[in-house]
Design goal:
The complex is a heterodimer.
Chain A: E1 3-13, E2 18-27, E3 30-35, E4 48-51, E5 56-59, E6 61-66, H1 79-88, E7 91-96, H2 107-120, E8 124-127, H3 143-148, H4 164-177, E9 180-183, H5 188-191, E10 196-197, H6 200-205, E11 209-210, H7 213-229, E12 232-235, H8 241-252, E13 257-262, H9 263-267, H10 289-300, E14 306-308, H11 316-319, H12 336-345, H13 351-356, H14 360-366, E15 381-391, E16 410-420, E17 423-427
Parallel strand pairs in A: 1-4, 1-5, 6-7, 7-8, 9-12, 10-11, 12-13, 13-14
Antiparallel strand pairs in A: 1-2, 2-3, 5-15, 15-16, 16-17
Helix pairs in contact in A: 4-7, 7-8, 8-10
Chain B: H1 22-39, E1 53-58, H2 64-75, E2 79-84, H3 87-91, H4 95-105, E3 110-115, H5 120-125, E4 131-137, H6 143-157, E5 164-168, H7 175-186, E6 190-194, E7 210-212, H8 215-219, E8 224-227, H9 243-250, H10 254-257, E9 265-267, H11 280-284, H12 291-312
Parallel strand pairs in B: 1-2, 1-3, 3-4, 5-6, 5-8, 6-7, 8-9
Helix pairs in contact in B: 1-6, 1-12, 2-12, 6-7, 6-12
Classes of the chains: A alpha/beta, B alpha/beta.
């Protein structure tokens, strides 16, 4: 069995609170041992030694919200290309969304994703399955059977379940199986034909806006339904101060609720739309600066549990259109780590707390074995230099798509090695070793 | 920079009022005045744009704006062709960029574009080597309409600064309103917006306008009453309960107009819904209504814009990397 010793590392394990210099030993695909004193007596013969030179060694990142074009839109992104992008971004586990063509709402399709992922992907891929058949918001999908087939959670992806009765029964039924319902919180009638945040920028550009209340109202409704049913609820991506406040109240009442924020909801605000920049057309939309700050505060105080990339690849033809007609979405797997690290570098959140939102918290919510450094856990690891400065360069992306609004943004922090099942699947080509 | 014209109008495109200065606007209006005079003569034709090609590309039906641009181009001696894209073609995503590339290959000198989506004209301009004029994009801007309104007001009242202008009706969906609000603010006029809340954008107050929901109150002592067109499909209960109710509260009639200054002028960008947003007799009242005059000013303003933009265009043919003329 191959064994590798990662020495001279700054071990950060958000799950246990460990943050210390030390070493970690992998054997086969698992973590064997770790700790500050490990290998104080020297590394045994036959063990490959990797000198981390003081870099951070933490669990590989888990990204809870990734859109991939497979099946149905493989020209935008495949599971294979998304997994390469993930590896380059330090992400060892991606949770793919079910709004594919066909929609992942049947056991056979969950099996299909798992098989494709096993054969073609370099990182772990788990599917979320649809809450309702065809994402139509009308009839419940086979939640129990889908869960048995290893769907890790349920979501109607970029759509909300508008009908409160349907949502009530979903949460109620799911509670019997302890399933996680991951909801895109946007009241669709109120969002209407809106294409960006309602406000001054939308008015100046003559674009129909999505009011923040569309999100708040849906979160508030959902919290009442959770209270009524006891179902486990996760807000897929919060972007507004009011909705974050509502969720905090729900948590204070002891409800089984959690939430994520997309990277773009704290890395950008609505001004990035500028003069109809379709790369800044996102779901949820880029909000005001006050809302952006509320997302940062929500992450810092723990109201928001998870950071997700909302990786949503689009081809040029879908984006080079008048703003109203252009597709939503930005790619994010390869930029999630450095953009999240901005919150650490500017003092908003400590490094371990920040990493928890991309490792241990999603693992806990989804019931995954990874997301922690402990003997017996999968050796899914990320080694990175949190300070290394670089510029985001769309030409360097491994994703098939290039729809990023972050091109040329100076950032700090870059993966050095990404490891899945004890094997190095990515090595920074710029590190020179 | 060599491509700045001696007259100081520094733009290659006219995509909106936003970004223009008071002196840019004054320059356009001054030149427009000359074209008004020229257009009233028997011989209206000049050869300023001789040899140049103007394409009017309309993705939305329009009679008056397209005709006005066509006439403006022809009176300046340009070869003018009209293209109307069908509604179904617009829905095919890549059409706009493809159309731009195709037209660009034909070396037009000016492209006049109307499109149902905000920002589409700006997007198209990025792919064109020639001047692009926005003839209306979605709910965004319609700059030549605002300029012709300004010209009409200035010729009647002598100035724009200090006037109080009420813009009434469907401001939410109106590109005419956005362009006019910006232009009037730049020129130092006071702007009021009068509409039911459902037809006003949320952040209206941040555009430097005073908002009214009561027509009589909003029209008090104004110099200009600018009516906007209300689309029929917005009056069936979606934005206002009915045509009848809208006319009752927000249609312009003698009683409401009595609140304005006695010599206040009535404007409308056309086409009018008589009996919906404006009383038919008022629209035809030659002492108050300048609606026909607006149409006349439209041709002159568009000639001035074509004239100014043409001064930006180089008369040298584009030269390739080896010096070959392309």
């Amino acid at each position: 069995m191959s064994a590798t010793a990662y020495i001279n590392a700054r071990l950060i394990d958000p799950a246990s609170g460990l943050d210390a210099s030390g070493a970690l030993l992998t054997e086969g695909g698992l973590i064997a041992q770790l700790g500050p004193e490990l290998f104080d007596g020297g590394v045994p013969d036959g063990v490959t030694v990797v000198d981390c030179a003081g870099r951070v060694l933490c669990p590989g990142l888990i990204d809870m919200r990734v859109f991939v074009g497979e099946p149905g839109a493989e020209h935008k992104e495949t599971l294979a290309s998304a997994s390469q992008a993930a590896a380059a971004g330090g992400v060892t586990c991606i949770i793919v969304q079910p709004n594919t063509d066909p929609v992942i709402d049947e056991v056979a399709l969950v099996e299909y994703i798992k098989r494709q992922a096993r054969d073609k992907a370099v990182v772990r891929i788990h599917p979320m399955a649809a809450i309702t058949k065809g994402l139509r918001g009308e009839k419940m999908a086979e939640l129990g059977l889908l869960a048995q087939a290893d769907a890790v959670a349920f979501t109607d992806a970029d759509r909300a379940v508008a009908n409160a009765q349907v949502m009530r029964r979903v949460l109620s039924y799911a509670s019997a199986f302890n399933l996680l319902i991951c909801h895109y919180p946007e009241e669709p009638a109120l969002a209407g034909d809106g294409v960006m945040n309602a406000g001054e920028v939308a008015m100046r550009l003559g674009l129909p806006g999505i009011p923040t209340q569309a999100e708040t109202i849906m979160v508030e409704r959902d919290l009442r339904l959770v209270e009524m049913t006891g179902g486990r609820y996760h807000a897929a991506c919060l972007s507004t101060a009011q909705a974050i406040e509502a969720l905090a109240l729900g948590k204070a009442r002891g409800l089984p609720v959690s939430a994520a924020a997309a990277v773009h909801s704290f890395a950008l605000n609505e001004s990035a739309v500028g003069e109809y920049r379709t790369f800044a057309k996102t779901a949820p939309p880029l909000r005001s600066e006050a809302d952006r700050q509320a997302v940062v505060a929500g992450l810092a105080d723990g109201t928001i549990d998870v950071i997700c990339s909302c990786h949503d690849p689009q081809d040029v033809e879908s984006k080079r259109l008048p703003f109203e007609l252009a597709a939503t979405g930005i790619i994010g797997l390869e930029t999630m780590l450095p953009l999240a690290l901005e919150l650490y570098h500017n003092g908003a959140i400590g490094l371990s707390d920040l990493l928890a939102k991309m490792t241990s918290r999603p693992a806990q919510l989804l019931g995954l074995r990874g997301g922690k450094l402990s003997p017996g856990a999968p050796a899914d690891l990320l080694i990175f230099d949190p300070d290394k400065p670089w510029r985001i360069d769309e030409d360097g992306f491994r994703s098939k798509a290039k729809n990023t609004p972050y091109h040329d943004r100076p950032v700090q922090g870059r993966p050095w090695r990404t490891i899945v099942d004890g094997k190095v699947i990515y090595a920074d080509p710029e590190s020179g070793d | 920079m060599s491509d700045i014209s001696p007259h100081g109008f520094p733009f290659r495109h006219l995509l909106g009022i936003e970004g223009l200065s008071a002196s840019d606007i004054t320059e356009i209006l001054d030149l427009s005045d000359q074209y008004v005079t020229q257009n009233r003569q028997v011989d209206k034709k000049r050869s300023l744009l001789g040899g140049r090609t103007q394409i009017n590309l309309f993705f939305e039906t329009s009679t008056r704006t397209r005709t006005s641009f066509e006439l403006a181009g022809k009176r300046l001696g340009a070869d003018v062709i009209n293209m109307t894209a069908t509604a179904s073609a617009i829905k095919k995503g890549e059409t706009l960029i493809d159309t731009a590339a195709t037209l660009n290959a034909m070396h037009p000198d000016v492209l006049v574009v109307r499109h149902p989506h905000s920002g589409a004209v700006a997007l198209l301009s990025q792919k064109m080597d020639c001047s692009v004029i926005n003839a209306g994009d979605g709910s965004h801007e319609h700059p030549t309409q605002a300029l012709l309104d300004a010209l009409t007001i200035r010729r009647r009242l002598g100035h724009l600064h200090g006037l109080t202008v009420a813009i009434c009706g469907d401001i939410l969906h109106s590109r005419v309103a956005r362009s006019n609000i910006m232009l009037l603010n730049i020129m130092g006029a006071h702007v009021r917006a009068i509409a039911p809340p459902t037809l006003l954008p949320g952040a209206m107050d941040r555009m430097g306008v005073e908002v009214f929901h009561d027509m009589a109150e909003g029209l008090r002592d104004v110099d200009i009453v600018m009516m906007l067109r209300l689309q029929n499909e917005r009056m069936n209960g979606a934005y206002v309960p009915s045509t009848r109710e809208y006319y009752h509260f927000f249609g312009l009639d003698q009683a409401k107009l009595a609140m304005a200054k006695p010599e206040a002028l009535i404007m409308h960008p056309g086409p009018m819904n008589r009996g919906v947003e404006i009383d038919s007799e008022l629209a035809d009242d030659i002492n108050r209504s300048v609606i026909r005059e607006q149409v006349e000013m439209g041709v002159a303003v568009r000639m001035a814009v074509l004239d100014l933009l043409s001064r930006q265009a180089s008369n040298q043919p584009p030269v390739g990397p080896e010096g070959a003329v392309l």
